[in-house]
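RECORD TYPE: protein structure
NAME: Dihydrofolate reductase
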Amino acid sequence: MRSITATMFVTLDGVVQGLGRPDEDTSGGFTHGGWGPRYNDEVMGRELAKGMAKPGDMLFGRRTWEDFITAWGRATDGNPFTRHMNAATKYVVSRTLENADAWQNSILLRGDAVVEVAKLKAQPGDDLSINGSASLVNSLHAAGLIDHYTLLIHPLTLGGGKRLFDGPAPLTEFELTGSVTTPKGVILAHYTRR
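PREDICTED:
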């Protein structure tokens, strides 16, 4: 059985919305987009690269997959993240996409996210990673399908926005398996479901 690891950039008050740029996700009137890049540094890059160095497939919700196509799918630089994302098999969960042809090595999973991901997880193959895709992470967490979390906890609060663990979910305990603090105050915390 495959394991699923979710990597999420999150504020101290649990917000995961609009990390990268002001127009990334303005739903619900969110005006704080682009809060994350000022905290990037060499330590964060090195730690994220460790995760990218492991073989594995990727899992996306439609919105994040479409956003990543622009950021990574068309890039031709020598960035190791670009190489990893373009080479990986990418499963995109969507009820509205007609196909996943817009980004190489992408496979469309139609239908209910929990049902489709549970079937995928039960198959033999590489482990799965999710980067972003907060709605998908919330659904999979509530169904008990996520095995590991890497949370990049940023030292700021936004007071509003989509939160990581928003909505109904079962009581779940985790074990802290490692942590690193960056010079800019971001805590990378690795958790495994007990």
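COMMENT: The domain at 4-15+50-173 is CATH 3.40.430.10 (Dihydrofolate Reductase, subunit A).
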